[in-house]
């Protein structure tokens, strides 16, 4: 019989890994990906709206993003939002589409990005470890209340530890891949 606490803990650990992966995707690694614009909000008729809901975002080349708004009147607003963002890229508009040329990363910028990625990965690992602690505390409480035996508690704590190791390894693999992507010139 599987303990509901275990499945809940595993579900939360999976979510943590997904969050780390999303954080990594929004970091600029010298390569153009539409996900770079995910966090940028555009004022559209007074409502902050994500760019991908106002336009088609594509990456026709490795260092170029093309934003093609469905409503041409929103073009200046998209430009403003990109300029205000922390991307550090100046948009070039021809009245129909906006082109974002992604500049080559300097070695210092790459090193900074690696630090940021490592910090995000560590935050993810800490979150996974916190989930482990919460699960172990809940198991101790269940054992104290006589809901499970001491042996059962130990066995379940071992399962929780296996889950923790598995998801921390996943985060480490994501980190290694992102680091490699950043450092590739």
Automatic annotation (TrEMBL):
Alphabetical UniProt keywords: Cytoplasm, Protein biosynthesis
Residue span(s) of domain Ribosome recycling factor: 21-183
Annotated GO biological process: translational termination
Pfam families linked to this entry: RRF
Record-given protein name: Ribosome-recycling factor
Subcellular location: Cytoplasm
Family statement drawn from the similarity comment of this UniProt entry: Belongs to the RRF family.
One Gene Ontology term, aspect cellular component: cytoplasm
Described function: Responsible for the release of ribosomes from messenger RNA at the termination of protein biosynthesis. May increase the efficiency of translation by recycling ribosomes from one round of translation to another.
MF terms in GO: ribosomal large subunit binding
Origin: domain of life: Bacteria
């Amino acid at each position: 019989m599987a303990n509901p606490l275990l499945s809940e803990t595993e579900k939360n650990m999976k979510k943590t890994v997904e969050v780390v992966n999303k954080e990594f995707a929004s970091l600029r690694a010298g390569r153009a990906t539409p996900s770079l614009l995910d966090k940028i909000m555009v004022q559209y008729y007074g409502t902050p709206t994500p760019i991908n809901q106002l336009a088609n975002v594509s990456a026709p080349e490795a260092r170029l993003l093309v934003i093609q708004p469905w409503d041409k009147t929103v073009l200046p607003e998209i430009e403003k939002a990109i300029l205000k963002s922390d991307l550090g890229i100046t948009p070039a508009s021809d009245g129909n589409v906006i082109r974002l040329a992604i500049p080559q990363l300097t070695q210092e910028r790459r090193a900074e990005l690696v630090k940021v990625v490592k910090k995000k990965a560590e935050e993810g690992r800490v979150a996974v470890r916190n989930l482990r602690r919460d699960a172990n505390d809940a198991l101790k409480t269940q054992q104290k209340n006589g809901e499970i035996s001491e042996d059962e508690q130990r066995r379940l704590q071992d399962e929780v530890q296996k889950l923790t190791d598995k998801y921390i390894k996943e985060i480490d693999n994501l980190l290694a891949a992102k680091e490699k992507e950043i450092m590739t010139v």
